[in-house]
Amino acid sequence: MSAMTITPVDGKVFGAVVTEVEVPGLSDAEFASIHDVLLEFGFLAFPGQFLTEKESARFGERFGQLEFGGAPMANQKRLDDGSFGDVLDLDSQMMRTNVGNETWHTDSTYKPISSKCAMLSAVVVPDQGGETELADLRAGYAALDAATKDRIEGLSAYHSTQYSQANDVGDFPTTDHDGMLASVYHGEAYLRPLVKVHPETGVKNLFIGRHAFGIPGLERSESRELLRSLLDFVVSDQSRVYTHRWQVGDTLLWDNRALLHRARPYDYAKPRVLIGTRVAGDPASELAYYPTDPEARGGRDALAAELALLRDEARDRRYGATTASW
Ligand code: OGA
Ligand code: MN
User: Which residue's CA lies nearest to atom 3 of ligand 1?
Assistant: First the structure.
């Protein structure tokens, strides 16, 4: 039997490729090393795994409680027999959400508990475009000058995907969804520090992305400018950015507490099917507050005020400040 091989990604400050291993059959010792190298490298690519939905969910469960497991993340409707039908209309809420995910983000920071780690596995991929990119918020923080580090220490931002949809693509989702979208579009915004101390490594990283807005204590323009400049800074150095060009069968796993990610555009008429599994964070380190907690009011009010302004400002963005009709 050959030993699991970990190869750091060339020319990048993060990321490794894991080969000579079968994810579904990982021993406890192999899983423990994978967990360790995930903390060190931030993301791991596993080529040629061809995980089923169940295997993806089971792998996720080894890291902790799932937000969802083995969920098809597709631009096609799932039919009752499990196969995929027509590609979704670009104006559907699901596609608006997918297109929104083409802006740098963290997963589930718009929920009470943000995500620990997440994985995607490729089932059908377009010939061109549709890559997934990752960026290292640890290296981004480490490279900031001392004055900027001082300035952001102690600052927080609200996180909401209603904010990011409006701001990035001019989409104004309703909050009356069932199923998965109910936990995404809900009228709440969660306050999280701009500098996160990683709960397992103790290393500091920026914790920003498209869902972050409204830094308390700063003018709106100042807050927008600061969040924009921090994000631009992180991705300005190519050694902190990795582009995954999907091959069917690949699995990509990343630490959502320390990395940004985004999808890249593609021809939306072509099918793109990934299997997604997302692991919830630890309440001790990833819980902001619950909607029933008194401090939730601040986020709700900040979001309502922000959306009122964006209603006007986002008219010229992709969806023209409209709501999907299906
Ligand atoms: C996600 C996501 C990126 C992609 O599933 O959370 O951001 O490339 N996906 O589809
Ligand atoms: Mn995502």
Answer: 263
Cα-to-centroid distance, 3 and ligand 2 (Å) = 32
Helix (H, G, I), strand (E, B) or coil at 114: coil
What's the gap in Å between 147 CA and the centre of ligand 2? 31
Q: Which of 9, 44, 6 is nearest to 239 (CA)?
A: 9
Question: What are the structure tokens assigned to 17, written together?
Answer: 């490729």
Mutate to test the pocket of ligand 1, among 95, 106, 120 (most ligand atoms within 8 A of CB): 120
Domains and CATH numbers, the chain: 5-313 (3.60.130.10)
Q: What's the whole-model pTM score?
A: 0.97
Own/partner pairs, 2-7, CB within 8 angstroms, 24+ separation: 4/30, 4/33, 4/34, 6/33, 6/37, 6/41
Residue with tokens 């555009």: 265
- Percent of the chain past pLDDT 90, that is, above it, reads 93
Q: Give the pLDDT confidence of 132-151 residue by residue, as tens digits.
A: 999 999 999 999 999 999 99
